[in-house]
Specification:
Shape: rod-shaped
Number of helices: 1
Strand order of the largest sheet: 2-9-8-4-6
Distance between the termini: 95 Å
Largest sheet: 5 strands, mixed
Number of strands: 9
Order of helices and strands: HEEEEEEEEE
Low-confidence stretches: none
Structural class: mainly beta
Oligomer: single chain
Protein backbone atom coordinates (compact mmCIF):
# COMPACT_ATOMS: atom_id res chain seq x y z
CA UNK A 1 0.00 0.00 0.00
CA UNK A 2 2.89 2.36 0.64
CA UNK A 3 3.93 2.11 -2.96
CA UNK A 4 0.56 3.23 -4.36
CA UNK A 5 0.57 6.14 -1.97
CA UNK A 6 4.05 7.20 -3.17
CA UNK A 7 2.90 7.22 -6.82
CA UNK A 8 -0.17 9.27 -5.95
CA UNK A 9 1.95 11.69 -3.94
CA UNK A 10 4.39 12.19 -6.85
CA UNK A 11 1.51 12.94 -9.22
CA UNK A 12 0.00 15.37 -6.77
CA UNK A 13 3.29 17.27 -6.41
CA UNK A 14 3.55 17.62 -10.21
CA UNK A 15 6.55 15.35 -10.53
CA UNK A 16 4.96 13.12 -13.08
CA UNK A 17 6.41 13.86 -16.53
CA UNK A 18 4.41 13.43 -19.67
CA UNK A 19 5.84 13.35 -23.16
CA UNK A 20 4.05 14.06 -26.41
CA UNK A 21 5.59 13.17 -29.75
CA UNK A 22 4.89 15.64 -32.54
CA UNK A 23 6.02 14.66 -36.03
CA UNK A 24 7.96 17.50 -37.64
CA UNK A 25 8.93 17.50 -41.27
CA UNK A 26 11.93 19.62 -42.25
CA UNK A 27 11.81 20.23 -45.98
CA UNK A 28 14.75 22.60 -46.39
CA UNK A 29 15.21 26.15 -47.54
CA UNK A 30 15.28 27.54 -51.06
CA UNK A 31 17.62 30.09 -52.61
CA UNK A 32 16.87 31.21 -56.16
CA UNK A 33 19.30 33.19 -58.31
CA UNK A 34 19.44 34.06 -62.00
CA UNK A 35 22.58 34.27 -64.10
CA UNK A 36 23.17 35.01 -67.78
CA UNK A 37 25.50 32.63 -69.55
CA UNK A 38 26.02 35.03 -72.47
CA UNK A 39 26.26 38.60 -71.26
CA UNK A 40 27.46 40.19 -74.53
CA UNK A 41 24.77 41.67 -76.77
CA UNK A 42 24.79 43.08 -80.29
CA UNK A 43 23.03 46.39 -80.88
CA UNK A 44 20.26 46.93 -83.43
CA UNK A 45 19.15 43.30 -83.48
CA UNK A 46 17.30 40.67 -81.48
CA UNK A 47 19.57 38.89 -79.01
CA UNK A 48 18.76 35.50 -77.49
CA UNK A 49 19.93 35.62 -73.90
CA UNK A 50 20.14 32.37 -71.94
CA UNK A 51 19.13 32.84 -68.32
CA UNK A 52 19.80 30.09 -65.81
CA UNK A 53 17.62 29.95 -62.70
CA UNK A 54 19.41 28.04 -59.95
CA UNK A 55 17.95 26.78 -56.69
CA UNK A 56 21.07 26.48 -54.52
CA UNK A 57 19.03 25.73 -51.42
CA UNK A 58 18.16 22.43 -49.75
CA UNK A 59 14.41 22.53 -50.42
CA UNK A 60 12.35 22.14 -53.60
CA UNK A 61 10.24 24.96 -55.01
CA UNK A 62 7.17 24.79 -57.24
CA UNK A 63 4.91 27.00 -59.39
CA UNK A 64 7.83 29.24 -60.34
CA UNK A 65 6.57 32.27 -62.31
CA UNK A 66 9.01 34.92 -63.51
CA UNK A 67 8.29 38.18 -65.29
CA UNK A 68 11.01 39.92 -67.25
CA UNK A 69 11.14 43.65 -67.89
CA UNK A 70 13.70 45.97 -69.42
CA UNK A 71 15.16 48.51 -67.04
CA UNK A 72 15.40 51.11 -69.81
CA UNK A 73 12.64 50.68 -72.43
CA UNK A 74 14.20 53.39 -74.63
CA UNK A 75 17.26 51.23 -75.33
CA UNK A 76 16.07 47.63 -74.93
CA UNK A 77 12.83 45.69 -75.28
CA UNK A 78 11.96 42.26 -73.92
CA UNK A 79 10.03 40.43 -76.65
CA UNK A 80 8.85 37.35 -74.75
CA UNK A 81 7.97 36.15 -71.27
CA UNK A 82 9.30 33.11 -69.48
CA UNK A 83 7.22 29.94 -69.12
CA UNK A 84 6.13 28.74 -65.70
CA UNK A 85 8.27 26.02 -64.14
CA UNK A 86 6.19 23.49 -62.23
CA UNK A 87 9.02 22.30 -59.95
CA UNK A 88 12.68 23.08 -59.35
CA UNK A 89 14.53 20.72 -57.06
CA UNK A 90 17.19 21.56 -54.53
CA UNK A 91 20.62 22.17 -56.07
CA UNK A 92 19.25 22.20 -59.60
CA UNK A 93 18.82 24.66 -62.46
CA UNK A 94 16.55 25.42 -65.37
CA UNK A 95 17.40 27.51 -68.45
CA UNK A 96 15.22 30.03 -70.22
CA UNK A 97 15.71 32.05 -73.41
CA UNK A 98 14.89 35.76 -73.34
CA UNK A 99 14.49 37.55 -76.66
CA UNK A 100 15.90 41.02 -76.17
CA UNK A 101 16.04 43.74 -78.80
CA UNK A 102 18.74 46.33 -78.16
CA UNK A 103 18.70 49.64 -80.04
CA UNK A 104 21.77 51.07 -81.75
CA UNK A 105 21.86 53.90 -79.19
CA UNK A 106 22.89 51.35 -76.53
CA UNK A 107 26.08 50.30 -78.36
CA UNK A 108 29.13 50.38 -76.10
CA UNK A 109 27.11 50.54 -72.89
CA UNK A 110 25.48 48.16 -70.47
CA UNK A 111 21.79 47.35 -70.16
CA UNK A 112 19.94 45.44 -67.52
CA UNK A 113 16.80 43.37 -67.25
CA UNK A 114 14.69 43.05 -64.12
CA UNK A 115 13.39 39.67 -63.03
CA UNK A 116 10.56 39.25 -60.56
CA UNK A 117 9.86 35.69 -59.41
CA UNK A 118 7.05 34.22 -57.33
CA UNK A 119 7.04 30.60 -56.17
CA UNK A 120 5.92 28.18 -53.50
CA UNK A 121 8.67 27.09 -51.14
CA UNK A 122 9.04 23.55 -49.76
CA UNK A 123 6.36 24.32 -47.14
CA UNK A 124 3.95 25.69 -49.82
CA UNK A 125 4.36 29.27 -48.58
CA UNK A 126 4.18 31.93 -51.30
CA UNK A 127 7.57 33.63 -51.76
CA UNK A 128 8.88 36.36 -54.05
CA UNK A 129 12.33 37.33 -55.21
CA UNK A 130 13.65 40.10 -57.44
CA UNK A 131 16.93 40.38 -59.27
CA UNK A 132 18.55 42.54 -61.93
CA UNK A 133 20.91 41.05 -64.51
CA UNK A 134 23.38 43.32 -66.28
CA UNK A 135 24.45 42.79 -69.89
CA UNK A 136 27.01 44.55 -72.11
CA UNK A 137 26.19 45.81 -75.61
CA UNK A 138 29.04 45.64 -78.11
Amino acid sequence: MGRSFDKFYECARGLLEQFTKIPLSVEGDSKLTFSASNSGLVSNQINYVTLDLTNSGTGNVSNVKTTVASSNPQSESVLNQLPETSELGANSSVSYIVELFVSSSAAGSSVSISLSTSYLDAYTNQQTASQTVGLFVA
